[in-house]
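SEVERITY: medium
COMPONENT: batch folding queue
REPORTER: lab tech (J.R.)

DESCRIPTION
The queue accepted two submissions in a row. Attaching both inputs and their returned structure tokens so the on-call engineer can compare them side by side.

ATTACHMENT 1
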Amino acid sequence: MALAEHEALVRLFCERPDLAADLLTRSLRVQLPDYDYAGLESADLTQVTPTERRADSVIVFRRKRPEADPQPVLAVIVEVQRGPDPGKIWSWPMYLVSLRTRLECPVILLVVCPEASVARWCARPIELGHPGLVLKPLVAGPNEVPVITDPGQAAEDIELAVLSAIHHAATPEGPDILNALFAALHNLDRDLGGMYADMVRAALPREVWDHLEEHLKTETYEYLSDWARENIAKGKAEGRAEGKAEGKAEGKAEGQAEAILTVLSARGLEVPEDISEKIRKCHDFDRLAAWLRAAATVDSSDALLDDIS
């Protein structure tokens, strides 16, 4: 198991704990209790034994109470599996018992598996020995993670779109999924978008990424590729390339314009040269932001300018 691939998936749930709720309710049809917020919990599940036990991530859903600390109503242990591991049939039940004892609330095991064969292995029931006591892990494999090829849908749930890219990158829809994701990332803060772009690159096997690169020779991809490499792998280098404040503003406007054109193109809408030029020459950030929002829903590029002008 490649450490970078594993950690990229784990970090995705750390960035947005509610992603676990999305998978459980939308894909696995699990009814969650009423809660006010979800947050990370210590992943140390060691009991009084000589062996340290740590889950990949623990998310706790809590309900607020008047004049008392928030009450845990559900805990989710998130485990990322990229290959079969026979040791898990012994450690996973212990994780559940340990966390249930500590928090005194129901606990769910959610296993995230980008590979279909691994997902099937992880979904096998684990007999615990006591009559009727069987652990059936809930598994989010390729069949449970949606295919997101629409930039508007990707923008609504960036983390789920990242998960979609990781789970379905090797499928025929892989290039369309990445194009939709990268188009949506343009509307994020530069550092945040770069972080998510880097997560996708780190989580995919080298041969899969090399194959996808051949389909991603767009300005959007080149921009995000540099973005992730410079700001995540090499440290924040902005300012060095932007220059003066005037240049920064111009670069931001250009980036917004390219994002608009990318969304329109990804949705299969034709963009005549005169409209493309008008969008690229615009330096009104409010107008550009309005165009970017509208680009995800308009029926044509003409309608985009008519609605906002």
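ATTACHMENT 2
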Amino acid sequence: MFIETEAEMTERTMKARWQYADGFYKVLEGRRKIYTEIRENYIDPKKCSENRNKYRDDFASILGWPLTEYDSLSKTPMAVKKEYRYDTGYAEAYAMEFEVLPGLWFYGLYLESKNKGEKLPFIITQHGGCGNPESASETFEENNYNGMVRRTSVFGKGSNLFAPMLLLWPDRFHPEPREKEDEGYSRYRIDARLRQVGSSISAVECFAIRRTLDYFIKEGIAEIGHIGMLGLSYGGFFSMITGALDTRIDAVYSSCQLNDRYRYGREDWIWSSESSKFLDAEITGLIAPRRFFAEEGVDDDLFDSGSFLKEAERVKTYFDAAGAGDNYRFRTFPGTHEFAKDDEGIAFIYDYIKY
């Protein structure tokens, strides 16, 4: 015989549920304290400045294959397709596809500056979530990129740009019918399946960006000492991790991304036991002594500018330890989740890679 009413039983069960769920956060808090101690013993600004390549290899191992085999895989011939698309008004746009891994064709727009008579820097311009190379280039409409690609292309004496496409489009844009309905084209499902085989979607897409850079260097379009990368949101994330891993990228500009990874940890931004070795400050510390610019909108509705400033101060210790304090700059700006409308960041990296 029941001694409780259905309502009483439901209330008691719900209390037990919430108590159980809250318990996970208490467990997490304890584990984070332990991992903070492990991380502080593993890496600090001085240790990083003394053995940056070792830490870079460790970070690649955390992300996984194919970054762990980049040196051998990058020697494999890569098929490339190139087709003229249109005149943007400030550059000639070419659609390009690269078979970065067998069966994986990586797409992007190559924007060749109209100022062809000059030796120009080469800059990778990376779109964010729900974006694509065309939206970042504002081919069809204005958006929160605020002319990111156009302004970078024409700044100073100009630049040649490559705008890669990542798997970041909304679900409603997925083609139908899907060959594999259980997997679809979900970024997170693909990431989970890649993790099963020692990889991650971040590793594959970072690898793809680096392979395209191989091509542009080989073709004489990009020259080491004059290469930059910038992006908004997810684009800022990939600018940070690609710049951390690839020392051929001389200057990095990350807009609306650097932050507290415990507070903002999407599935594809975190990896197993990552926080025992690297959070955002440790990752971007690998960019030093090269140039790095980070910014956050004061009124960003996705990321808190206060926690950005705290992490940005941690980054500073890594650049100071490398004797490169002048090569790092961070700021908040009056704006939302958008690429800043002024050219301070563009100027900061352009000045470093210009001829």
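NOTES FROM REPORTER
The two ends are 86 Å apart (CA to CA).
No errors were logged for either attachment.
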